[in-house]
Amino acid sequence: MKITPAVPADLGESVDCLAKAFAQDPITGFLLQTGRGYRDRVTQFFSLLVRARIALNMPVLVARGASVIHGAAMGYTTIRPAWPLDLAEEWDRFEKSTPGLTDRMAVYDEIAARCKPSAPHYYLGVIGIDPNLHGRGFGMQLLAAFCDLSASDRLSSGVYLETAEASNVGFYERAGFAETGRGRLGGATLWCMYLPHSPR
Q1: What is the pTM of this model?
Q2: Pairing state of beta strands 69-76 and 2-5?
Q3: For residues 119 and 159, is the Cβ–Cβ distance under 8 A?
Q4: Structural domain range at position 88
Q5: What is the CATH number of the domain that holds 143?
Q6: Domains: count for the chain
Q7: What are the tens digits of pLDDT across the range 66-109?
Q8: pLDDT of 60-72, one tens digit each?
Q9: Cα(44)–Cα(51) distance, rounded to whole angstroms?
């Protein structure tokens, strides 16, 4: 298994892995509302995110097996450029077609704004592994590869992320992350975590 940057041809497999990984996730469940059509909304959500990150040359990493992709991680560097116009318009249509999404995104963003570090940093927005492959170390390898990208960027002070899965908190703590704050997403707790890099 290798960790490599994603290319456009990886879109379908990467999105499928993420949709499976986040099928029961409290964050996407809160934002996109579980129930009828949820899997389609999650798939469209991740398709938009992956395509935007690739178009902007932002970090998108995949855990690549001999013939299939087992997982993916993506986020932003120390900058968050505007999305290409076509993808921004597609996001607007998606947001309007998902009742309440704008308001729920505002709740999520308010928590993140309170808890993220003020110094320039990388943001790990999504990391997911095919649920059938949990426990094999693929997630930790993806996480380490993303953190290495940040550590090699002299503008970055560290890596910031959020999770609403209590079981993930220990996973990130083992990798060196510490909690910076938390908030409520409906009935779920959102933990905000940060891994600082050593001074360079």
Answers
A1: 0.94
A2: unpaired
A3: no
A4: 2-196
A5: 3.40.630.30
A6: 1
A7: 888 999 999 999 999 999 999 999 999 999 999 999 999 999 99
A8: 999 988 888 999 9
A9: 11
